[in-house]
Design goal:
The protein is α/β, with parallel strands linked by helices. It is built from 4 helices and 5 strands; from the N terminus they run βαβαβαββα.
Amino acid sequence: MSAESTKIVELNTSGYHNFLKNNRVVLVDYWASWCMPCVMQGNLFERSMDKLPSGGVIAKLNVDESPEIANELGIQSIPQLILFVDGKPVKGWTGVTPAEVIFSEMRSHL
């Protein structure tokens, strides 16, 4: 499963690892529906998708629905944003982060 589109991909536990392996530069937004800063972060991404660097992908993973992934990564605060390159984490942000900060970091890996 590859994601060459301008929409945010919803991940779950079953497809998570394969998705990271099959997409070179992926930003994963770890969030929960009850978390207002998480909702704000998601809205920032939705409004900025036209500026997403070509070849980059944004995905979301609900930590309440996939706690094993959150535990695997040691996520304790949300929103937690992690940039993966070739399936490996290279940078992370905690809290609401401007999309351009993340897109700039993504560009440096494309």
